[in-house]
Design goal:
The chain contains 2 helices and 2 strands; from the N terminus they run αββα. It has about 60 residues and is an alpha+beta fold.
Amino acid sequence: MTNIYIRMIMYIVSPLLTALVALVPGWGVHYAEGVLSIDIATLAGAVVAALGLSGAIFAKWGLKR
């Protein structure tokens, strides 16, 4: 695989995997009495981490030299 394919895969997969952290049962998602609730603080933290990871990938490989 060339560098461009690895970069594109990481751009697509890293935010998805990081955002899935908010869906870990008992940490970001709670189910009680038929109601599913999502912890907004955990979801916001996961989204910020996903954006930070995408930014780090861009800083590493996104600049022309």
